[in-house]
Amino acid sequence: MKILKTPTEVQSVLSGRENNKIGFVPTMGAFHEGHLSLIRMSLRDNDITVVSIYVNPTQFNDKDDLAKYPNTIDEDIKKLKDLDVDYLFLPEYRDLYPDDFNYKIVETELSKELCGASRPGHFTGVLTVVMKLFNIVKPNRAYFGEKDYQQLMLIKGMADAFFMDIEIIAGMTIREEDGLAMSSRNLLLTPEERKKASVFPDLLRSKLSDEEVIRLLQENGFKVDYIEQKFGRRFGAVYLGQVRLIDNV
Amino acid sequence: MKILKTPTEVQSVLSGRENNKIGFVPTMGAFHEGHLSLIRMSLRDNDITVVSIYVNPTQFNDKDDLAKYPNTIDEDIKKLKDLDVDYLFLPEYRDLYPDDFNYKIVETELSKELCGASRPGHFTGVLTVVMKLFNIVKPNRAYFGEKDYQQLMLIKGMADAFFMDIEIIAGMTIREEDGLAMSSRNLLLTPEERKKASVFPDLLRSKLSDEEVIRLLQENGFKVDYIEQKFGRRFGAVYLGQVRLIDNV
Fold first, then answer.
1. CB contact under 8 A, A108 and B107
2. In this complex, is the C-beta atom of B7 within 8 Å of any C-beta atom belonging to chain A?
3. Which residue, among B209, B202, B207, has the nearest Cα to B227 in the 3D structure?
4. Chain A residues inside the 8 Å CB shell of B106
5. 3-state class of B171 per DSSP?
6. B27, B195, B199, B203: least CB-packed within 10 angstroms?
């Protein structure tokens, strides 16, 4: 596996590979089985797989959340090598944002709902960095997990709105044995919080009304951001201590 | 010359032409010598030249201005045929904006100054439509006139910020014999206004201070939006009757 640090390096190793199918998995690292399942899909379906690890500051509306975001880069690199990924792109802020975030992609409808309502600017940061990464890597296919379903819908919407010639492929949410959706943020839960966390997907999947789910979550010590139905799914975001968990079923 | 109406048509005629250099001149029609000079540059330097004519509603902050924008489509098509342009792209709103303008490119510094200060949202509309057109046509080079210098800077900035693999090429401002910068909006001037209009470039080019230029323009019946120095140039925007004129020297 070759590690690439700058957009120029990526462009130079991939130029002339137009006849190869390129699969791309953009991540913020701290890999769990959800990431690895997307990477395996890419390896299976493309000639070249590029994974990026970049904890994108412009999508964190909360500086503390950014500071605490888990970093397991050495283990991540080992996992990518074991999977035989072709390229890891590890950019830095100054390389991805030569404009210092003066140019942004803003979506004005869906990005204001659900997670967008409580995380102002979050999806602007996500869409902006994804557009940059797409234009650098120029993949044929890009892979995103359904756990971040709203993000997936917004990235599909952006690709359509801007006529980007990239197939956006969704990977199923991967869950722990107790049903908790895998997430890098799960690493931040205390052992007691982790034990309690599976109440969240259990209630989300239940036949109970949104109001009953909210009441039961609160009784169990969760702080509820939202429980809401959309796209024929039930979405939820909760806090357990300082840790924000999201899911959809 | 082939006329293409939809993004899909453009993509299908240009696919497989990756070994040809594609030059692209996006316009709002009502051609004058400024447009034609850009098109000649593209024809000279590329294998294929695509011109688009699209009066982009999202960049008009003033509905009246949009309604009055000159339309000379039959003459425009004749001129393109005479020049032997390869493709004319004539899209409609529903084709370019499947998202109904939910996804936008927003710039937060330069776009707020000069023309951006008095035309809120103008450059968001410009950048958004240019990004869409770039992604549809996938040109190697794209041509813009220096008359719209701020627009040119913003498009270059967007191309850099989003790692777009397109060379942005500037064409010199083309002027009438009396020095007035050619502009589609000049067609909207009354004969008396047209006669007086050359006072604007004359004063802009003079050694007089910005304040003196403003005073003399006002004395001559111009309404002044701004006269301002930036990028080692003097920029100006004025109204003559209902018509907005811009220039830079």
1. no
2. yes
3. B209
4. 103-106
5. strand
6. B195
Write down all domains in chain B, each with its CATH number in brackets.
Answer: 2-171 (3.40.50.620), 184-248 (3.30.1300.10)
Q: Cα dist. A169→A9, A47, A149, A153 in Å? A: 25, 16, 12, 11
According to DSSP, residue A172 is labeled P
Rounded-to-integer distance, Cα A58 and Cα A100, Å: 10
Please identify which residue in the block is written with the tokens 């659900």. A114
Q: Helices marked H in chain B — which ranges? A: 7-14, 33-45, 63-68, 73-83, 93-96, 114-118, 122-137, 149-161, 191-196, 199-205, 210-219
CA angle A58, A113, B117 (to 5 degrees): 60
Residues from chain B contacting residue A131 (CB–CB below 8 Å): 162
Q: What is the mean pLDDT of residues A166-190?
A: 97
Segment 162-201 of chain B within 8 Å of chain A by CB: 162-165
Between B109, B110, B131, which is nearest A162 by CB? Answer: B131
ipTM of the complex: 0.96
A97 in contact with B, Cβ within 8 Å = yes
Task: Read off the tokens for B194.
Answer: 């047209």
A123-161 pLDDT, tens digit per residue, is 999 999 999 999 999 999 999 999 999 999 999 999 999
Q: Are B135 and A98 in contact (CB < 8 Å)?
A: no
Cα dihedral A231, A233, A234, A238 sign: negative
The residues of A carrying an active-site annotation are: 35
CA distance B114 to chain A (A): 17
**Model confidence over B169-186: pLDDT tens digits?**
999 999 999 999 999 999
